[in-house]
Amino acid sequence: IHTPNIDRLAERGFSFRANYNLGGNTGAVCIPSRVMLHTGKAYFRVPADMSGARLFAELLREHGYRTYAIGKWHNQEPALIRGFESGKSIMLGGMSNHLEVPLVDLVDGRLVNKRTGKKFSSELFADAAIEFLETYRDSRPFFLYVAFTAPHDPRMPPEPYREMYYRQRPPLPPNFMPQHPFNLGPTMTGRDEMLAPWPRTRPVLSDQLAEYYGMITHLDDQIGRILQALERTGLSRQTVVIFAADNGLAIGSHGLLGKQNLYEHSQRVPLIFAGPGIPHGETQAFTYLLDIFPTVCRLAGINPPTDLDGVDLAPLWRGEKRALRDSIFLAFMDWSRAVRQGPWKLIRYPQIGYLQLFNLETDPHELHNLADQPAQKQRVAALTTLLRSWQQRLGDRQPLEVQPLQPKEVDLTGLTRQPDKWQPDWIVRKYF
Question: Which residues have CB under 8 Å from 126's CB, separation 6+?
Fold first, then answer.
């Protein structure tokens, strides 16, 4: 995938190569993911609207920062107004057609200037960020939050970006499957999974990957424009840039298209810090999106709240520590729970009474389930104990065993599909 601007950011910054979104309690994983990003707490402890929790933008604002929001906001208006002094080209909600973006501005605590953006979403949000940087004359430090919706579907990149990857015919992931081999619950027939027919076929998924990669490259170009504006204005010398994503995506892996699962392709997300005092480097230490909150606080010289689940990441780039936690915990709705320690990853599916055990060192694509091997019995038991301890620590009350069990087998061949209202006509004609 052609991402020269993100690559350059990584080359001068510090990359967290085993960074995770902890999971979600809804098929719209972006909602709890952003809850955790903004509050530094696991989603079990904070409602979707973030009421009763402090946002790190709110804390920065209290300490003299000008806080400015651009792009997607999917966690209700009061939290936005509480955290941000002002903003422009804000999209309230989860998604839209990228050429018909519902927008508002935040001025003096009010959402005004409701309109529909007629330019591609990534370009609209980059334009607003560049305008902010080029006109910034305030003596206060700033926190600029730019939340792109791309590469979220509709996967409708501008035509040159589509054609770039259509010509390349992207290879399918090694774990491509026509269908997922067992029941993953209601989200198996949710909106994300309806974007291609069952069984999944190589030609259809190759085209969808081309469109997805086109979205990413187009997004990268807009990120490049923002970084150039930061350089042009001289602000880069005193600005830390944080690049992150709210969730991954299957898009063919394991027969899935969406992110409503606990496989690596859907839970691992990029995280890069770059700026003054941050050296080039990378780490395989386990980290979460919710670690951003305390890390930003420390960078700003602010003591973070003491009740956060996130931890300061700076000891990793300073070389003071090689790891901050010895395992990672993942959760999705009431359907799955997972824990990873070293290369070993256990996924439990309470609703169907099923286990998966993977060695990610030898099986990074999670294809070979070792849970039933007698030699792994003690490992499964130990990881289950570790998983329960994580649940207790974070306030997750989901039982790991339930009755009655739901059917494990599922076959979605030929299931009737309907496009959602956001898909453009050419995608509807092509895939529906």
Answer: 146, 222, 223, 225, 226
Each residue of 363-418: pLDDT tens digit? 999 999 999 999 999 999 999 999 999 999 999 999 999 999 999 999 999 999 99
Name the phi and psi angles at 337, rounded to 5: -135, 145
Q: How far apart, in whole angstroms, are the C-alpha atoms of residue 332 and residue 345?
A: 15
How buried is 270 (Cβ within 10 angstroms: 0-12 exposed, 13-18 middle, 19+ buried)? Answer: middle
Domain 330-394 CATH assignment equals 2.30.40.10:
no
- The domain made up of 4-325 has a fold known as Alkaline Phosphatase, subunit A (3.40.720)
For residues 297-327, one letter each, b for 16 or more C-beta atoms within 10 angstroms of the residue's C-beta and e for the rest, the string is bebbebebbeebbbbbbbbbbeeeeeebeeb
Write the CB contacts of 120 (distance below 8 Å, at least 6 apart in sequence): 98, 99, 158, 218
Both structure tokens of 279: 């050296």
**Residues 81, 183: Cα–Cα separation, whole Å:** 41
Angle between helices 292-299 and 30-39 (to 10 degrees): 30
- Give the contacts of 292 (CB within 8 A, at least 6 positions apart): 37, 40, 56, 242, 244, 271, 310, 313
Q: Using one digit for the tens of pLDDT, what is the confidence trace for 184-196?
A: 999 999 999 999 9
Distances (CA, A) of 184 to 20, 354, 406: 20, 11, 10
Instruction: Report the distance separating Cα 241 and Cα 350, nearest Å.
Output: 40
Residues 256, 262, 264, 269: is their CA dihedral positive or negative? positive
What is the reported pTM? 0.97
Q: How far apart are CA 245 and CA 271, in angstroms?
A: 7
Residues carrying CATH 3.40.720.10, the chain: 4-325
Residue 248 near residue 259 (C-beta atoms within 8 A): yes
DSSP strand pairing (328-332 vs 281-288): unpaired
Residue 122, C-beta contacts closer than 8 angstroms, at least 6 positions apart: 98, 148, 149, 150, 218, 219, 222
3-state secondary structure of 268: strand
Cα-Cα-Cα-Cα dihedral of 421, 424, 426, 432, to 10°?
A: -20
Strands 328-332, 336-341: pairing is antiparallel
